[in-house]
Amino acid sequence: MASQEKNIPNTNSGLTDAELLNRFRQGEESAFRELVNRYKNSLYAFLRRFINQ
User: Fold this and answer.
1) With contact defined as beta carbons under 8 Å apart, do 34 and 20 qualify?
2) For 19-38, what is the mean pLDDT?
């Protein structure tokens, strides 16, 4: 099943965060993946700085 999900085109990249959140609340898992992809690097960098203080 995971391999099938990889074949689904990402159509969420042009949406706002609020729109993605609404889609996720309606059950669209790809919207959550897009939010994670948008912020994972920034969050990781923030946490590294926070932990190293």
Assistant:
1) yes
2) 96
